[in-house]
Structures are given as C-alpha cells and as structure tokens.
Design goal:
five-stranded antiparallel β-sheet, about 40% strand, flat
C-alpha cells in the first residue's frame, strides 16, 4: 500500500473555541463596545479603557482666597510595585525590565525615564560588563510609591546608581478633595476619602496619580477653602490588552468571544468576563505582552473567575 501525503488541516479561529467550560446560559458573557482600529479575533485577551486622560479642578463653594489652580497632570505611566531589573548588555548600555515584563533601554550618564521610574547610572573607574545588574525595588506607600536601587549581585563595573524617582500611581476615577488648613497649606484626599498628601501654594504637588500647582492670589486662602479635582471615567471601550497602555486597558479584564471587526469603527461584541475555564494555548495576545506580562494578565483574569488551563 502506498502512502499518499495530505495537506494538514488547520482549525480556524471560531467563536468561543477557547472555552473549556462555562456556566449554563450567558452569565459569563457581557455585551460591550469594542474599539482599537483592527480585527479582534476570538480568544484575544482584552482590557477596558477606564481612566480618562484629563482632570478638571473647580472651587468647592465660594472660597475666600482667590488663588488659582494650575494645569493638572494625571500620571500617564504609573510606577509598578515590585522589582525592576537593570541588566547591562555592554559597558555603557542596559535594559530595564519592569515587574510586568515591559522593557526599555538606557545608557550610563544619561537620565533614564520610562516604565514609571527615573534614575541615572554613572560609570566608575572599572567599566561595566554584560550581565552586571542592579535591582530597583518599589514599595507601595500612601500617596506615592518609594524606590531604592541596589546591585543585583557582584558587579565587575563599579559605577553607581542615583536615587530613584517614581511617577506615582495611576489616577483614580472620581472626585479628589483639596482643602486648605491655613493660608498656604492644603490636604489632598482621594475619591475614597483617604488622605494622600499635603501641599503648599507655589510648590508642585505630586501624589495620588495627580500633579498640579496652586498659586496664591491677592487674597489669602483661609481654613476651609477647597477645590475638587474630577478625573474622567474614560471611554469604557474594550481594546486588546497592551503592556504599555495607561488608560486602564493595560489590565486584562476579559476575553473576546467572537470575531469583532473594529478596523473601521467601534462595534458591539460579546466579551467573556467571568466564571469559566479557558484553554491557555488558544488565547491571542498583543505583541507587547511578553511571558511575564501574560502571566500577570492571567492572574487578573483568575481574580474574575476566568481560569486558564
């Protein structure tokens, strides 16, 4: 008997093909608005745009002081909590990897600012070699995370890393309160009422995901004068989860059930958001999501009851 070769058959992506088990009915699926300017295939891991790019301040009532609120800058690239690794690839070049797995490159003697942190590594008398490293550990504290750098091991190079600055947390959707306790000092509280920092007129404030400066006017503020800062709720649309997004879609929140063609305009589609098991090998990821990013995304999905097998 002769063997006749056959072309292999490839299963195409089809709606819900990634599901292993699901509850009866449609409890695990929501109807959502999908965006992104591209075709979204079944099994694509998605995030939701929950945070707006702007924040607006307004006086709460009639203030005695007539000082003004400057432009508000929401944190666009939040600091991640955990350990960043800084690994040299040559005597002067290094790669920084964030806890999420996202990466950026830098050079000695040049200020590095990316992935939510900032620092400068200064070369010493003995040059760095490939494999030399530092670890930057960020710690969650109220208002704004802190960071500290240390050698990742026994380095050949004896250069040093400066103090590390942090961008801060992502802003929280809702209304922040800014209340003066005397003519020049104020307290800022998050939408949940938690105090996140103290500020002074004429000095840049940065905490809780916001940055701004209040300038004193001709009439001084008095205790009780106050402002609100409203952070917009975002578009609420669903797009493929990407590691470097800052609008909320960097957090995995669901899996696209079927093919949704959003290449020309936004479309409504079905999103798996809870209570099911999925085949991990059939999930579709944005190219920015490396192994570490994917692992972090699966943890977020599991918290919603979406279990990857």
């Amino acid at each position: 008997m002769s063997y006749v070769s056959r072309a292999p058959l490839y299963e195409q992506w089809h709606p819900g093909g990634f599901l292993v088990s699901q509850p009866r009915g449609h409890r695990h699926i929501d109807r959502v608005l999908i965006s992104g300017g591209a075709k979204v295939y079944p099994g694509t891991v998605m995030g939701q745009q929950t945070t707006g790019a702007t924040a607006v301040a307004a006086a709460l009532g009639t203030n005695t002081g007539n000082g003004t609120f400057g432009t508000i800058t929401p944190v666009s690239v939040p600091t991640q909590i955990g350990a960043y690794s800084v690994v040299f690839t040559s005597a002067t070049a290094f790669t920084v990897t964030a806890p999420s797995g996202a990466t950026a490159t830098g050079s000695t003697g040049v200020a590095f600012s990316a992935l939510g942190i900032g620092f400068t590594i200064t070369a010493g008398g003995t040059a760095f070699v490939a494999g030399d490293s530092f670890t930057i550990t960020t710690t969650a504290v109220v208002g704004k995370p802190t960071a500290a750098a240390g050698a990742g091991g026994t380095n050949t190079g004896n250069g040093t890393c400066s103090a590390v600055t942090t961008n801060g947390y992502a802003p929280v959707v809702g209304v922040y309160a800014v209340e003066f306790d005397d003519a020049t000092h104020f307290i800022v509280s998050a939408p949940n009422g938690q105090e996140i920092g103290h500020g002074t007129t004429g000095v840049a404030f940065s905490a809780g995901g916001l940055g701004f400066t209040i300038t004193a006017g001709g009439t001084a503020f008095v205790p009780g004068d106050s402002f609100t800062v409203t952070v917009s709720a975002g578009a609420g649309k669903w797009v493929p989860c990407t590691a470097m997004a800052v609008d909320g879609s960097q957090n995995a929140a669901g899996i696209c059930f079927g093919l949704s063609d959003a290449s020309l305009n936004d479309v409504y589609g079905a999103m798996v958001v809870r209570s099911c098991e999925v085949n991990k090998s059939e999930l579709v990821w944005d190219s920015s999501m490396n192994a570490a990013s994917q692992a972090a995304a699966l943890v977020l999905l599991q918290a919603q009851g979406i279990i990857a097998r």
